[in-house]
Amino acid sequence: MHLKNYLIFLLVFSLTSCVSVKKYNEHQKVCIPPEKLKADVDFAYSRLKETHPQLYWYISEKELDHKFDSLKQTLTQPLTPLQFYFKLQPVIAGIREGHLSLRIPSKMITKKEIKNLEGKKGMFSRFGYYIDGDRLFIIENKDSIRHIQPGTEILSIDRVPVSDYIRKYRKLISSDGFNTTFHPYYLKDVFFGYYVAEKGYQDRATLETLYKGQKKTYELTREEKSGDDLKKEKENRKRTEEKKINDYIAFSDSYNRSFKFLDQDSTTAYIRIKSFSGDYSAKFYKETFGKIKKAGSSYLVIDIRNNYGGSLQEINNLYSYLSPEPYTLIKPSQVASAASPLKTNYFRKSGFFPYVLKTLAYPAFFFGQTFSTYKKDGRYYYKNKADKLTKPKQDVFTGKIFVLINGSSFSASSILTAKMKNDKRAVLVGEETGGANDGTVAGFYSYQTLPNSKIDLPIGVLLVQPNIDFTGTKKGVVPDVKISETMQDILDQKDPEMDWVMKEIDQEKNEKQKY
Fold it and tell me: Is 186 found in the same domain as 83?
């Protein structure tokens, strides 16, 4: 392409992008007539029935029909997309599939606004939070913002009670099945995501707080980043070998994966995994279990608390270092139809150049997905390496394993722990997991867009279930030793789950020394 024509193209593409942002934001203000909203409800339900492989797992067809019909009867007035979202999403949440959720419609920001935000610090994201019932607490303030003390309760934001927001947002989320531990963890993580989606990006907020019986009001502002802040961010973005292998996350200045020995004689190894991201994980596990093997460790603690899941291939690889015998991680993954893998919106939200590249690669994608399913006993299944027999790795760990879990252990974390519990390969310590014991629907998604409100509805395509004897409880993986961490434990920097494990290991060591 000639340079002049290329520059003209970039200008046109940039202007088109700006127009699309403006058009999208204008649509968010438009009130949609009731009949069109009802059409969106019907569209959403029809796509769910067509694509979701286990729609009536936790709710009967009759009950779900009633929920959708009842919703349509309430749609008597025009609504904006956001107002409609707050009506439809609770019905979607009632299906009780933790991966299934509408994308909340919110104002789209321009490249100029993004650049402006990149030069400022977060306003709410710099705190750590804890939810107890309808109450929201700050439990971490690393930057000592306004000298707000950990343990401070936020009573209101801009004079609106926090409890109102919590009750409103709680209706929008669901765990897998009838789990009892997931909500407070997930809600505290997404609370301000919902808040910003409703209110937009603001530069200030007034917090009314309560700490040790004393009420205080704080003005939060979106502060400019200093030169040192920008310099540190630039340094953090550099991908060293250590950052790659441990999967460094610049936003939180932390690692997804970490490993250490917990005692001087290397008897006890400890692996913490915050997310099964898949990035460089094979090298991490190879190096880690090589060190554990060389040290001759007798105990291994795997910490997957607050791990929302991720790569199925990663947990399959990890389990090959934990199972002394050949195993099959999951059962064959069921799909709704042979065409399901092709309903993944291949060209979704692609810019010009990615669109061109995807167009060139589409034939390979089409044939790959077409031959990725097979039919057995009248049902369709998706071919997956994790449902094949896997052999243990050379450095497989054969000692005793403890796994730390809580209500925020979800998706792939639950698949892994359900398998380990079924195989009696580990002692699970903590809380019931947020993800179901008997599997979940995820894998990859079919991204549907409701025609009138333009709200996105990603629908999981694969029924992924661990290769176990199912419990039928419709709940999470239940720990062998139940221990719940309290807010006071967090404030006092105590870890009751880890304390129990270390005490148990010490007792076993002492018993062995007697003989």
Answer: no
